[in-house]
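Researcher: Quick test of sequence recovery. Tokens follow.
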């Protein structure tokens, strides 16, 4: 099975092991999602998923939570995952950064058609190519920046300005026409949010997303320039992931308030562009033997979200972090893991959980 890896910050993983009961807990305050009655078929399938992945080399699940019809119906932690401990999100962070962009669009302070160069006039290279001039916020959101390779922001250690490194990187393709997985493109979204608001993304989102969803004190790594990494580096709990997915399932509404417009949720979760896995060029798909049957990263990309089978979509992070939203089944799945084989993990989730989550 092909292992697909993503650009991530280097972090240590928890090594302790704990297994928790999957019996629904009673919600003690509004910081938790409501708990519902366990469904025997779903419980059995989730237990089978965990048992099966335990036999797979390259897959180590650390938590699984499932909500359906607005209530948590399954939850279990194992292999160093803990209910009350924040977990590194890796590229799941991207979906949160894009949500900050969506909120600014909703507020009329930003347009996806805005040109990237307009936000950084003092950091542009000596010669600005036509392709760089035409790159938009939407191109960042859809990873269609026009780069054939991802910019390297670590070439000079902490002395490299990440925004300048991105802007200096050759834009050899017309933006909007070429998919290249690009975590630094998401960093640019974070930098744009900070330019507009004067706040880091984590601070901007705190009263608008984290506090309403009762996500307590998230941590987000930042660049040497003091800008949240955007494309990686967020640490939250599994239930926080589930809440974020539930917000999208509820089309941006939470506890009677519209935190994010329905229009943005629809755009962000839709297939906006054809996609390929990280580290793969669009013209390499056939030669590598990749198909939608053996590669989950070919089903299309939205605004920092991937499409799934059965009209589902997901936030997706290295080592197997997933928030899967299933509108047709009124369900959300949140998974944390330490798995190098992302395809094997995701295929297992599809195999065991998708068939039993019936509306």
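Model:
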């Amino acid at each position: 099975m092909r292992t697909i890896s993503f650009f991530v910050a280097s972090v240590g993983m928890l090594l302790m092991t704990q297994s928790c009961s999957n019996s629904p807990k009673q919600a003690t305050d509004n910081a938790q999602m409501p708990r519902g009655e366990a469904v025997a078929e779903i419980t059995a399938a989730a237990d089978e998923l965990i048992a099966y992945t335990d036999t797979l080399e390259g897959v180590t699940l650390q938590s699984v939570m499932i909500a359906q019809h607005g209530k948590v119906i399954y939850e279990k932690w194992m292999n160093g995952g803990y209910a009350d401990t924040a977990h590194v999100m890796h590229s799941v962070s991207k979906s949160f950064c894009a949500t900050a962009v969506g909120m600014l669009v909703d507020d009329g302070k930003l347009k996806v058609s805005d040109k990237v160069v307009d936000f950084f006039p003092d950091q542009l290279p000596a010669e600005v190519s036509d392709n760089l001039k035409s790159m938009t916020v939407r191109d960042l959101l859809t990873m269609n920046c026009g780069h054939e390779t991802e910019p390297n922001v670590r070439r000079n250690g902490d002395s490299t300005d990440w925004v300048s490194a991105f802007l200096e990187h050759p834009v050899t393709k017309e933006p909007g026409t070429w998919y290249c997985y690009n975590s630094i493109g998401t960093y640019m979204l974070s930098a744009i949010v900070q330019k507009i608001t004067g706040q880091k993304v984590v601070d901007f989102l705190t009263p608008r997303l984290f506090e309403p969803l009762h996500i307590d004190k998230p941590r987000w790594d930042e660049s040497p320039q003091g800008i949240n990494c955007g494309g990686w580096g967020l640490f939250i709990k599994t239930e926080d992931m589930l809440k974020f997915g539930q917000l999208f399932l509820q089309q941006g509404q939470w506890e009677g308030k519209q935190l994010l417009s329905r229009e943005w949720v629809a755009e962000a979760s839709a297939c906006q562009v054809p996609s390929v896995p990280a580290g793969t060029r669009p013209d390499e798909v056939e030669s590598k033997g990749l198909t939608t049957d053996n590669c989950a990263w070919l089903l299309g990309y939205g605004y920092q979200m991937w499409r799934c089978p059965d009209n589902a979509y997901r936030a997706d992070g290295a080592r197997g972090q997933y928030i899967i939203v299933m509108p047709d089944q009124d369900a959300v799945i949140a998974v944390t893991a330490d798995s190098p084989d992302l395809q094997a993990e995701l295929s297992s989730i599809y195999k065991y959980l998708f068939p039993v989550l019936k509306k």
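Confidence is low (pLDDT under 50) at residues 1-28.
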